[in-house]
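User: Hey, quick favor. My workstation is busy. Could you predict this chain's structure for me?
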Amino acid sequence: MAKAANGLEALRLTDELAPDVVFLDIQMPGLNGLSVAEQLGDDGKAPHIVFVTAHHDYAVQAFEHSACDYLLKPVAEERLARTVARLKSLLANKTAPVAADTLRALLAQLNVAAPAAAPATAPLQWIRAAHGEETRLIAIDEVIYFQSNDKYTSVFLQDEECLIRTPLSKLREQLDDAKFWQIHRGVIVAARHVAGTHTDFRGRLVVKLKGRGEQLTVSRNYADLFRQM
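Assistant: No problem, here it is.
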């Protein structure tokens, strides 16, 4: 078990330890609990989130971030026991997602119309990025990697860095998964610019890039991507 002193440390520890469950306070220095939950996402790799807070006003927002429970301070022992039981049940019953045809069959039995499939959206081809006082139009093939940067996203090209306002979590939805790989909660790298990987002295998987000297750490949640190569 690990304890974070603030929201940024909570994100770092989650990336390093890949826990099944994270308890978050709403009010934390750096990033509040809701912001941490938003960055953790809901992509199948994210941990179960339980909010523990003295503020009841944020319950709706908490459950919009897929929280599995919301505990008000001071937490009664009996109430905490119910939360623990719920978490044990969730962890014990992890199953593969229901196939689309199976879901539609179940909905048909309940006389519920299955939601129509959303039309496919073409992957992002161009981005508008701020570079100094200018705004540049950049072809997506020029990008070596994206990195979350507070409220912005840094775009790293071969010889320069630009900023865009789109958060990394939203940007990921617009990229071609075959061409861009998420290697860390805060980093997406262009596959064509990956020169190779190695393990550093701390045992972490590190990506070496073509065209840039820095090396990028792969978090435990995304290491399987490279083990399969």
